[in-house]
Design brief:
heterotrimer; A alpha+beta (778); B alpha+beta (287); C alpha+beta (156); A: 778 residues; alpha+beta; Aldehyde Oxidoreductase, domain 4; Aldehyde Oxidoreductase, domain 3; seven-stranded mixed beta sheet; 32 strands; globular; C: 156 residues; DNA polymerase, domain 1; five-stranded mixed beta sheet; 5 strands
């Protein structure tokens, strides 16, 4: 970008020093006098009535402050025992019945963790098991056991305001999209393709487990330190749940050790708040890794996708998407909606029919996971797009480029797309993997293949980000923002934006960590929304200060404010650098005193148009899109089914890259995370019981799993309303990895895998089915 | 989770260790490297009021040559075996097998004795130790004895050690003259994971013919398994026909269960494949 | 059972009363306030709790404090001279090999142990040695570059 001094530069992270020395503050390092530690007894049954809890022996153990049950929480005056962002369905501790194996039942707060865990072993709980449902396709049937008798909407967010109460069903949300006439198109089609795809439940696995510390300060205000991606939401939720005014709750979030969506909305905070209110002592609860497996997961999804082809073109697509949201909905309905409406792909398809169901089962709750459900829907549609291309004898790249939407065309929701670099992403991916190079003839037991996949995600809209920028008289600045630095580099990016706007260097900007006493409302740090929304908010706020600085200088120098620029810690006349004032001089001119400040506030609040609940049509469903493409080259060992990923290229349209190297890192990091998910991550349940609930059995990608050739390509299709044209990048690399790999496997050995993870056994079984003797034709 | 409070007893001699275990019976357990037992106690899956620390007993952490044989003390770490020049020279297959366990930190801490006493069916060391004809040395209230490793694994997590007996070392006889051994480890998830299965083979040849073939597999039965009935290979060339008979013997003796790393169907196919690979690797001069 | 032990941590003798059941991790964090040592998986698989024991990497979550006497224990706080970053830390910063950085202390110590044992590791050797250190932000490519960069600085 022309004439920018710090935006567009790959500056080093501003948080590098505390992080590389280990001095970074994490919630787990905060200790307070008299602090109590928490242990939680969890249900061994997936669905059961609690018939008896005997906690006398536990309460009598020395060092135990309280042993709390759900029934007791339900009796606390003014307290709602249930919380949740879409439905108030999740109890702090189970009340009367448990809904999944792992559901918290009893909480102990004691002087140390060992005492709390010892006390837990003294608690006796009797259960009466009830029939349960574990499979999402079974759960939608009318005869399935109900997870919840009633659904109580939470009314926390604008985009979920339409969520309804009631219903005797495990389907808690049904998104519908209808355009054109799919039945007619199927009747008139040359060919119809029908496939079912599945993605399993998986773990976010932030290296820092969830942790929350709650205490009452000198005013008896509730103070919360939490490893959370949504401090503003936590304050709102605690206020609503406990009936405490918002300004008597303070939520602070320091650096957190990863989130990826696991640390959104409320998790431990309500329970720890209850314990702190009862004991009147600071209370800290940190989950063990085994408890992480029992707290939040990535949605299992089963997708049925039916596509009509006429004259070699896609004329219709019908999608039936089932989201297994587990025992508590968490943000499942929003995922069912927002990812649901992208289920047909970034393509020009005149007839589309989508049913996207968010379904309760008696399993660990599922929630937002990097990609927000879009990886699962792209797994389905872009695998099928490839199946179709090959069946028609068309080149898979060309087959995608032809119907891929151009700027100004309408998405399946009726929204006109802007800043939509899908075609460029596909082209760059194909080019990077040398797609057009003729494939060498292959012999032997190892076969190579190449695959491409493409897709888009839409940013959560509407949403809100507010910020305050305070410029100090010495030309340094403080930025008050509730965006959470969880490794993605938001602190640095926001610093760059403010620095650019005020003509300062990044080291002069201090980003204050989220503190709801002073940092304004921000919806969430997730969904790749912060660079755009908070970036805009800080830019606008800084812009207001710059305007004021220019007005002061203009008056002093008798020039027009428009002739002035802010650069290098000064404000001066464009083209006449010597005619200007330093920031210090400006402040002195205005205030006459040292140490003064100028503050400004701004809010970025993009809106969405109403979406018709029957047709899913909206003039504007999203503020911006994240086009993604992945190219992969794999080698399949046909004797074992083992897969080696030789090349992986992750392409994303990020809009303007505020920090290009950080954008590349995000693409690569998300790609490796999803490579692990594609090849071996799966939470295995047996009748609702976790089978592989620890790192002895659940594997994630290691340093050995990086492909030999592995690179990112940042495509910058500027967004006219983004800060300096930026959009976002956190999830883009995640979106298209799985189908790219599956498409490459089909290219290599002619088998199609429709269920994740793609294990060697799945490949070998597919090969064995294809040919009884597993011989390969050259 | 935290471990429930217990008392760590630190004996200064093997006799004292045996005495302490006898004294406390079911309430005590020996502690070697401590990885497996510590994890179980952290998960509160088991609890022992007394742990008898074997690290304080002198002499258990040495690798000692003994007339061509080798004794590896029970408290020798996996990492020591992996890096030991003596073992790399005399039994390279062992250094390799121990080098694959877990990760470098676990290998630094976990002990040879603890590994074998755990008796998990997927462990890496047992198959190569079985084909090498290893014996386990145990000391207990009734005195000292050697237990051939092939008789050591009784069932899933069950060994031939009697109550109060401590595994003190592993004795490996010298390799047969002209013998070569290999250990192939196959993982289906992450590389540092438990294996789907492991195959160890030891082949002694003379004039292009097999003199003796030994095979052991891990991960395909309730215990690590030494394959019996391979005497028919004596004086045979290991051609396709003979190898097929070997594979049939293997098929008949393994009883894999489906687990997270592979179904029974898959493990049977991989057992065949990797036994073939192991033989092919050792029988280098096949036409 | 409670007893008094002396641990040698970062070149200092620390005498304290511990329970036999206390892990080294618990003592280093909760008692000695060495916050760079972190629990993440509890089973020795992730490397976040890595400390050096006589220069070799171990999972402190699996070691009992009472069994860790008489050894030199090094945490990230003990690396470098307290004034400037150790070359390995600097390499991590320069190569942008950290994001949320929860795994970083474990990685830095493991890289130190790697380069002490193998001053010129090949990429395969480095990957093998670090295969037990997990990073979910998945900055592995950058971490390998940091190893190479540190290797050049420390191998003299």
């Amino acid at each position: 970008m022309a004439n920018l001094s710090v935006v567009g530069q790959s500056v080093y992270r501003t948080d590098a020093n505390p992080k590389v020395t280990g001095r970074a503050l994490h919630v787990g390092n905060i200790e307070m006098p008299g602090m109590l530690h928490v242990a939680v007894l969890r249900s061994p049954y997936p669905h059961a009535r609690i018939t008896r809890i005997d906690k006398a022996k536990a309460e009598a153990l020395g060092g135990v402050a309280v042993v709390l049950t759900g029934a007791e929480i339900a009796k606390m005056p003014g307290v709602d025992a249930h919380f949740g962002p879409a439905f108030r369905d999740q109890p702090m501790l189970a009340v009367e019945k448990v809904c999944y194996a792992g559901d918290p039942v009893v909480a102990v707060a004691a002087v140390d963790k060992r005492t709390a865990e010892d006390a837990l072993q003294l608690v006796e709980v009797d259960y009466e098991p009830l029939s349960a449902v574990f499979d999402v396709l079974e759960a939608v049937k009318p005869e399935a056991p109900l997870v919840h008798e009633h659904h109580r909407p939470a009314k926390a967010f604008a985009d979920l305001a339409h969520v309804k109460a009631g219903q005797q069903s495990n389907i808690c949300y049904h998104f519908k999209l209808r355009t054109g006439d799919v039945d007619k198109a199927f009747a008139e089609a040359d060919r119809v393709f029908e496939d079912t795809f599945s993605s399993p439940p998986a773990q976010h696995m932030p290296m820092e487990p969830h942790v929350a510390l709650v205490y009452l300060d000198e005013h008896e205000r509730l103070n919360v330190w939490t490893s959370s991606q949504s401090p503003s939401y936590v304050r709102t939720e605690l206020s609503a749940t406990f009936g405490i005014p918002m300004n008597r709750i303070r939520v602070r979030v320091p650096y957190i050790g990863g989130g990826y969506g696991a640390k959104l909305y409320a998790k431990l905070e309500p329970l720890v708040t209850a314990l702190a209110l009862i004991t009147r002592k600071p209370v800290r609860y940190a989950l063990t890794r085994e408890e992480e497996f029992l707290t939040i997961t990535k949605h299992k999804v089963v997708s049925r996708i039916k596509t009509a082809i006429k004259n070699g073109t896609i004329t219709a697509r019908k999608c039936e998407v089932y989201w297994d949201t587990g025992a508590y909905a968490e943000i499942g309905p929003r995922i069912g909606h927002k990812s649901g409406y992208t289920s047909a792909g970034p393509y020009r398809i005149p007839n589309v029919w989508i049913d996207s169901y968010c379904v309760y089962t008696h399993r660990v709750p599922a929630g937002a996971f990097r990609g927000f459900g879009v990886p699962q829907v792209i797994w389905a549609y872009d695998s099928q797009t490839d199946i179709i291309a090959r069946a028609l004898g068309a080149d898979p790249v060309e087959f995608r480029l032809r119907p891929a939407l151009d700027e100004g065309e309408r998405f399946a929701t009726g929204t006109i797309v802007r800043s939509f670099g899908v075609k460029e992403a596909i082209r760059r991916a194909a080019q990077a993997i040398e797609w057009s190079k003729p494939r060498a003839r292959q012999t032997g037991t190892k076969r190579r293949g190449k695959g491409i996949a493409a897709g888009v995600k839409a940013v959560l809209t509407p949403s809100i980000s507010g910020a305050i920028v305070i410029l100090n008289a010495d030309g340094t600045a403080n930025v008050l923002s509730s965006t959470v630095e969880m490794g993605q580099g938001s602190e640095t990016t926001l610093g760059q934006i403010v620095a650019e706007e005020l003509g300062l260097t990044v080291d002069r900007i201090h980003i204050v960590q989220p503190d709801t006493d002073v940092t304004p409302y921000d919806t969430i740090t997730a969904g790749s929304r912060s660079t755009y929304h908070m970036g805009n908010a800080v830019r606008m706020a800084a812009g207001k200060i710059k305007t004021e600085l220019c007005e002061i200088v203009a008056a002093k120098l008798e020039v027009a404010p428009d002739d002035l620029i802010a650069r290098g810690g000064r404000v001066y006349v464009r083209g006449m650098e010597e005619r200007g004032m330093t920031i210090g001089e400006i402040f002195l001119a205005k205030f006459g005193s040292l140490g003064t400040t100028l503050a400004a506030e701004a809010v970025c609040q993009p809106t969405a148009s109403h979406m018709d609940p029957e047709t899913g049509q909206s003039e504007k469903c999203t503020e911006y899109w994240f086009p993604s493409a992945t190219a992969a080259e794999v080698e399949v060992d046909t004797e074992t089914g083992q897969l080696k990923v030789l090349q992986l290229i992750s392409v994303g349209d990020t809009g303007t890259a505020i920090n290009p190297r950080h954008c590349e890192q995000q693409l690569l990091g998300a790609a490796v995370m999803h490579l692990g998910l594609t090849l071996f991550e799966e939470m295995v349940f047996d009748e609702g019981q976790m089978v592989n609930g620890s790192l002895l059995d659940y594997q994630i990608a290691t340093i050995k799993d990086i492909p030999q050739a592995f690179r990112p390509i940042v495509v910058e299709v500027a967004h006219e309303d983004g800060p300096f044209g930026a959009k976002g990048v956190g999830e883009t690399g995640a979106l298209t990895v799985a189908p790219a790999i599956a498409n490459a496997i089909e290219d290599a050995v002619g088998v199609r895998i429709r269920d994740l993870p793609i294990t060697p056994e799945r490949i070998l079984r597919a090969l064995a089915e294809k040919s009884a003797t597993v011989t390969l034709k050259d | 989770m935290t471990i429930r409070s217990f008392e760590l007893l630190q004996p200064r001699s093997l006799a004292e260790a045996v005495e302490l275990l006898q004294k406390h019976g079911e309430e005590a357990r020996p502690l070697g490297g401590g990885t497996t037992l510590v994890i179980l106690m952290k998960q509160r899956a088991v609890h022992y009021p007394y742990l008898v620390d074997l690290q304080t007993v002198p002499g258990l952490n040495r690798i000692t040559p003994e007339n061509g044989a080798l004794r590896i003390g029970a408290l020798v770490s996996h990492r020591m075996v992996e890096l030991s020049p003596v073992i790399r020279q005399a039994f390279p297959v062992l250094a390799e097998a121990f080098g694959h366990i877990g990760n470098v930190r676990v290998r630094q801490t976990a002990s040879v004795g603890g590994n074998l006493a755990h008796a998990d069916y997927r462990l890496d060391p047992p198959p190569p130790l079985l084909v090498l004809g290893a014996e386990v040395g145990a000391v207990g209230p009734k005195g000292a004895r050697m237990i051939p490793l092939k008789n050591f694994f009784r069932g899933m997590y069950e060994t031939a050690l009697e109550p109060g007996e401590i595994l003190i070392d592993v004795k490996i006889p010298p390799m047969p003259a002209n013998g070569k051994a290999v250990y192939l480890r196959y993982t289906t998830l992450s590389a540092n994971d438990w294996p789907c299965l492991g195959v160890a083979a030891l082949l002694t040849k003379e004039n292009g013919r097999a003199k003796e073939l030994r095979l052991a597999l891990g991960g395909v039965a309730p215990t690590p398994l030494l394959i019996g009935g391979l005497e028919f290979t004596k004086d045979q060339r290991l051609d396709d026909g003979v190898v097929e008979k070997v594979l049939q013997a293997v098929e008949a003796q393994i009883s894999p269960s489906s687990d997270l790393r592979g179904s029974e169907w898959y493990k049977r196919r991989m057992a065949r494949l990797f036994v073939q690979k192991a033989i092919a690797r050792l029988d280098g001069d096949r036409g | 059972m409670k007893r008094e032990i002396t641990l040698r941590v970062n070149n200092k003798n620390e005498t304290l009363a511990v329970d036999d059941a206390d892990s080294l991790l618990e003592v280093l964090r909760d008692r000695l306030k060495l916050w760079s040592v972190r629990e993440s998986c509890g089973v020795g698989a992730c490397g976040s709790c890595t400390v050096l024991l006589d220069g070799r990497p171990v999972s402190s979550c699996l070691l009992l404090a009472v069994r860790s006497t008489g050894r030199e224990i090094t945490t990230l706080e003990g690396l470098g001279d307290g004034q400037s970053l150790h070359p390995i830390q600097q390499a991590f910063v320069n190569e942008r090999a950290l994001q949320c950085a929860y795994c970083t202390p474990g990685f830095v110590l493991s890289v130190k142990a790697l380069l002490d044992e193998l001053p010129h590791p090949s990429e395969e050797e480095a990957k093998e040695y670090l295969s037990g250190n997990l990073c979910r932000c998945a900055g592995y490519a950058e971490i390998l570059r940091a190893v190479r960069s540190a290797q050049e600085k420390t191998a003299r």
